[in-house]
Amino acid sequence: MNIETILAELELKLQSIGFTEGSSAMLLQLNIAGQNYIHSCGNLNMLNASSARLIDGHRYIFVEFMYNEISNASLSTNTKTLHRDTARLLKEYNESLAIREITTECLYDLEFFMQAKGFAVNTIARHMKVLKKYINLAIKKGLLYQSPFIGYTIKSQETHREALSEKELKLFEEYIPVCPTDKEVLLAFLFSCYTGLRYSDICCFSKRNIQVLNNKKWIILWMKKTGNEVRIPLSTVFNGKGLAISREIKRPRGPLFKLRNNQHANRVLKAIAKEIGIKRNVTFHTARHTFATLLLYRGVSITTVQKLLGHRSVKTTQIYSAVTDLTIERELRKSNKAAQKC
């Protein structure tokens, strides 16, 4: 029913309960007001779309919204797993929580809930970052006015970045696995040590990503995590050890490395580390830290390492600043020795 019909029916009802011709001025004003409303808003049946979405936000369960968006998103397997873990955690906290019911106080309460479950600070931060992504998506879709994260700070702790020393890397290089799958993991790990590529990029890396520039082999690819392009001089970096591995593996098409998953790779690497006498926590991501750390220690500038890692900002690369301090000390010692000889 549109507003014109409503006004006509209202006029008849007013007349039926005793409104006379003397009341015509009031009826006229009512009619004019109604017509003005029609002109500005159109038919009552055409409710403003954004208003409708905001009304939906009051009753749209946030966990359902997350699951729906995760299913439709183009995400890597590992990222989807993390996002689903966050959705499951939110469901455990409050499965009936509507989008518009999420407040800043709610976020602090959720943080306390995760602390009570024994989650580390950085684990909580990881889940909160995922939650923030879907809050922003709800705002973009018109389901929420503003972000509850405006009054909330995601806390994180700086962690020690494990990296292999030159000596430890050599122990991995010299290790000979018995199992073919262990050898596959080891070769992928070493390739990551020589190129700095993340596990996600190693999994989809193929020989098509190796191109010739100025008679030298280069890796050119778009990183899955950031979407940034990275260029790595495969023939030159670490004396071409990564190039040697790519030639050793005879797979002209498809991914160069056949890996089950990150968890399996980490188990294999921990077992190898234990066998060769390395007592620290070695994971696949240790390879990327090793790549950056050893290059900086060898005197490569932090801006060059930034480009090789594919970091947008040098600030991200400055997590390795302690290594550059060691490099500076080493260079100064060299200069002191050289001065003494003069």
Structure summarized in a few sentences:
This protein is mainly α and 342 residues long. It is 59% helix and 4% strand. Helix 1 packs antiparallel against helix 2, helix 4 (62-72) packs antiparallel against helix 5 (77-94) and helix 9 packs parallel to helix 13.
Strand content: under 5%
Instruction: Name the shape in a single word.
Output: elongated
Question: What's the CATH class label of the largest domain?
Answer: Mainly Alpha
CATH architecture field of the largest domain: Orthogonal Bundle
Number of strands: 3
In sequence order, what are the helices and strands, one letter per element?
HHHHHHHHHHEEEHHHHHH
Q: What is the number of helical segments per DSSP (H or I, 4+ residues)? A: 16
Stretches where pLDDT falls below 50 for ≥5 residues? 40-55
Mean pLDDT rating: 84
- CATH homologous superfamily of the largest domain? Intergrase catalytic core
Q: Structural class per helix/strand content? A: mainly alpha
Tell me roughly what share of residues is in helical segments. Answer: 55-70%
Gyration radius from CA atoms, angstroms: 31 Å
Strand order of the largest sheet: 1-2-3
CATH fold-level topology of the largest domain: hpI Integrase, Chain A
How many discrete structural domains? 3
